[in-house]
Automatic annotation (TrEMBL):
Keywords assigned: Membrane, Transmembrane, Transmembrane helix
Protein name: G-protein coupled receptors family 1 profile domain-containing protein
Domain of life (superkingdom): Eukaryota
Spans traversing the lipid bilayer: 12-33, 45-63, 83-101, 113-135
């Protein structure tokens, strides 16, 4: 890859990352400041997904910065970035599954069985924490 292409790619990572951070922050702030939205578990899960996307975005922006400036973070820096990215990706995927299950429960299953829903949510979150800690 030509150096000019590396620089363009790096700047695109940074630009998309900045826009992503701004919009994810605005969405999360909007959800957290609305009692109506916070009453719905799907929106709580969306805020958690936004937190994991924040981690992913920061790592991608660092990668873009690295491409533009040719800074070498060394072995430890690379491993740390990879571990954070892997953790954030896995957390995003499991939270996306949780959101899908929450939507399935809300749309398909009865809303009267709250205990089942909370058992499912707590169980999946616990599984997510254990798997994330184990795999990272």
């Amino acid at each position: 890859m030509k150096r000019s292409e590396e620089i363009a790619l790096g700047w695109s990572y940074i630009a998309v990352g900045v826009l992503s951070l701004i919009f994810n922050f605005l969405v999360s702030f909007g959800i957290l400041s609305s009692k109506e939205l916070l009453a719905n578990s799907s929106y709580k899960i969306l805020v958690q997904i936004n937190l994991t996307l924040l981690l992913e975005t920061c790592i991608h922006m660092l990668s873009g910065f690295k491409s533009v400036t040719l800074i070498n973070f060394g072995w430890l820096g690379e491993e740390l970035m990879g571990a954070i990215m892997n953790f954030a990706w896995f957390a995003t995927m499991t939270l996306t599954l949780l959101l899908a299950l929450d939507r399935f429960y809300t749309i398909v299953l009865s809303r009267k069985v709250h205990l089942t829903k909370w058992i499912m949510i707590v169980g999946l979150r616990s599984l997510t924490c254990v798997l994330s800690a184990t795999l990272s």
